[in-house]
Amino acid sequence: MIDTRTRRRSFNFQIAIHTALIVTLLLGDLAIAESTALDSGMAAYQSGDFKKASYLLSDERNPELGRNATALYYRANALVKIGRIPRALDTYRKAKALNQDPQINRFCEQAINSLSSSNSDASPAVASVRPCMKLATLMILLSKITQTRNSIVALLTKM
Fold this sequence. Notes:
Blueprint: H1 4-33, H2 37-46, H3 50-56, H4 69-81, H5 85-98, H6 102-117, H7 123-158
């Protein structure tokens, strides 16, 4: 026969699991519903609308994005896609100068080297930037997942 303490522990554990699932679902919905300039710009980029992405991620449109290395990096990638190489180079340099994320810095350095070494033909440069963009997207997703996990752990430890 199971004693009262064991039942109580089991019940508390079940509540903690259910709470964690609910919080995960709610945070996921909030993250999806959140419509920031960065999210809008990245969505436009992912859909292939590079001109719109360049506009949405511009620091002229939203000054906060001028201090966000990720936004600048994606804007530079969009500028490369629409053929505005000199502007893309400036934007990569600006993102790198912020020195917020070592991986973004490395991607920017690779793109700068690739674009600077190619003369007027931008297609090799675009091809070398593409793998960097995929990794940067994965890093952003991993960051959001880690933030959600940390929130859940914090909630569970308070119980």
